[in-house]
Amino acid sequence: MNLSTLFDHAPYLSYAFRTLSNDEALKLDHSLRTLQRAQRLRSVYFLGRLEGHDADYFLAFGCAERELFAARKLYYSQNLHEWFLLLEPKQWDHCWDKIGAPFRGDPAYRMDVDLGPSFALDEDLVPVEGARIRFEVKEQNRLWFVVSRILQEAALVPRGVLYHDTDGNCVINPYFGGISTEASLILNNYHHFREPRADPAVNLGKRDECNYFMDVFDPADDVVPKEGSFVVRRDVGRDVFVLNSMHWPGMINFHRANTGAVYGFCYFGDGRKNWELPFKL
User: Going by C-beta distance under 8 Å and a sequence separation of 6 or more, which residues neighbour residue 243?
Assistant: First the structure.
């Protein structure tokens, strides 16, 4: 949620079965505005809270320029007062999202991880008999990895929010006016909140009527499995659409139909990915 709309959008946290007390909201607003000034950030977003065994991590990210993704910075806080920068580790591995142990809530904690033989594969992705994957990971590094993955894989915005300008920058469209009630039910009318991964021609070719500046971004249905990775729910009373990530339980994306200001996403979970989803489907 953008800091500028934090108080307005806080009620939408109820769709994640969470809330912020008035005291927490005030502390967040004050500390994030202080962070924005100190770090000279153009925009700041509150992402949510990762719940650890002994303590929790409040999460945020900021952008120094109009460009949203090139130099995005990740932050965490444990007291809603001090915010710390999450730096990309010098060494990390994609298998970190397969760690099943809960977070402790101690950034300095070092975990010995044994993923067992099921994740040890050769170059042809064939299990290596008798081999195991063992490593040590610092919790602060794992936190960077998980927050990065959640933003890459589960953060969505309605089509038209992201805009690819003539200079090649990914920016927020100031003229976004919302999407209709009918369009809000369709998954490919939402885009991943990230730089596009697919070739622009591929994404543009998926729509009968396309706009180059908006439709170069990856649609939300470009995931595996295509059916079931996101569940769309509708609150008829407020005409709000909520997209729950089934890969990252606790991640919700929301949009109030026909409004250009009410959209966002937040995460309240334990930082563990649901690897059983394909088998459940």
Answer: 156, 187, 190, 220, 230, 231, 232, 233, 252, 253, 254
pTM over 0.70: yes
DSSP state of 264: E
Cβ atoms of 47 and 59 closer than 8 Å: yes
CA distance 239 to 121: 47
| Mean pLDDT per 10-residue segment, the chain (281 residues) | 92 91 94 97 96 97 94 96 96 90 96 74 53 86 97 96 92 94 94 91 84 91 78 92 95 95 95 79 48
Give me the pLDDT at residue 120, please. Answer: 54
Q: In angstroms, how far is the first alpha carbon of the chain from the final one?
A: 30
In angstroms, rounded to a whole number, what is the distance separating the alpha carbons of residues 238 and 9?
13
The three-state secondary structure class of 25 is helix
List beta partners, residue 128: none
> Do residues 65 and 40 lie in contact, with contact meaning Cβ atoms separated by under 8 Å?
no
**H/E element, 190:** strand 190-192
